[in-house]
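Example record

One chain of 310 residues, shown exactly as stored in the release files.
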Amino acid sequence: MATSLPRTVGIIYNEAKPVACRVAEQLVGQLEAAGRQAILATGWGGILGCSPLEGPRCFVAIDGLVPPGFDERLEFIIVLGGDGTVLSAFRQVAPLGVPVLAVNTGHMGFLTEVYLSQLDAAVAQVLEGRYEVEERSTVAVRVFRDGEPLWEALCLNEMVMHREPLTGMCHFEVTIGRHATVDIAADGIIVATPTGSTAYALSSGGPVVTPDVPVLQLVPICPHSLASRALVFSDAEPVTVFSATPNPIVMVVDGNAGSYILPDDRVRLSRAPYGAKFIRLQSPEFFRLLREKLGWGLPHIAKPTSVELP
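Predicted structure tokens for this chain:
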């Protein structure tokens, strides 16, 4: 008589943090006691680093980063780390379509759902199936040289192109879908998803976009024009960026993957066919998250003065 295999839960952890390593080991026992099999991987596999300016490129397809043993049979995945680990983990597992419970062992934890102190109760709740899944859009970023694909990565937050030190002002030619090409003179540009609208794009003056809106935004960094402002547009429109700068510039995706961009290279961005699925233990409430993490919408209360005015 054939026996059914135990259901499996994936664990991705930040191997550079001792607390994440320790908790990952503890989770294995907790999951086994609940009748699940645990399979572990580190977040390192999703950090592509920056391709060197000279020398061979290491082309890894977007769907080629899935850790060994991780597949669609996983019930869910637990990620232990900060926002950087979450971004790296989704680069590894988004093609599987498996939901992720993100546990904060870092600082800001904007993308995480629970803290370590809540982990036991959170895992028990998920094992019982009492959760919702919130899907965030992702973007495929590809670099082409002489018409050939050179480098690619999955983007959950943003793609940034910026100048190297001492290279001066950069010029970018940006084409969005069928629309006319625009020229932007700036230190750099950001193309951000709604998830990334609360990250670097926000610091550069871009608007906050709620996660359910199917858009991208283009944000110039320190533009050399009063007319250069953030632009929000449909994510159904592919974006092509050409660097009209005679020097190499740097492209960074989600802060942990990047490539040098040479003159005549083309960078193309398009909505990826799969999204990032977050496990939510209660109905997603984005404004509450903005208030708790960024202080948005808090009432303004004047500070009392100890000096009596005449």
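Notes: The chain has two domains: 7-137+274-283, 139-271.
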